[in-house]
Amino acid sequence: MINKLKKPRPFHLVIIVFSIIFSLVLLLSLPSLFNYKTLNKKLEDKIKSEFKMNITNISNIKYGFLPSPHLQIEEADLKFLSDEKNVVGKLNKIKVFISLFKFVNRKDISIRKITIENINLNFKNSSFKAFLKHFNNNINKPIHIRNSKFFYFNRKNEAATISTIKKLDYYID
Prior knowledge:
By secondary structure, the protein is α/β, with parallel strands linked by helices. Helices cover about 30% and strands about 40% of the residues.
């Protein structure tokens, strides 16, 4: 009996592996071709509804796929109350981790988590109460704050408390 199946050659295996890797990289880099200026309002609304935070004045959104697919917002303002005039913090390089397949299909943005690094959080009495209320809300998706500073200003607008935040992960289980 003759064996009909041929043993695969190493060259064929190399071609198959390279084509799989190339297809994967092409799929992951596809969102970098999108126009993100149209995404600002949708992203603000999604963060407000899912994370109970107001991120406004979003500028310069970039896409990255390592370590996992995410949108990197270069600059934005952070508020905890929608009618609040004072900005709690100026965000630089905030990472919004997304679900790639929903984003590529343009159906909806599905945000998995948010990572904020190197921010100065400036609280006054009203914004601090909003921040504490934010902690008590039902937020199922994690917010990670890394290498940041917490400032609390009293009624005379003097810094009453200064605290560093190395690593803060918060969400309600």
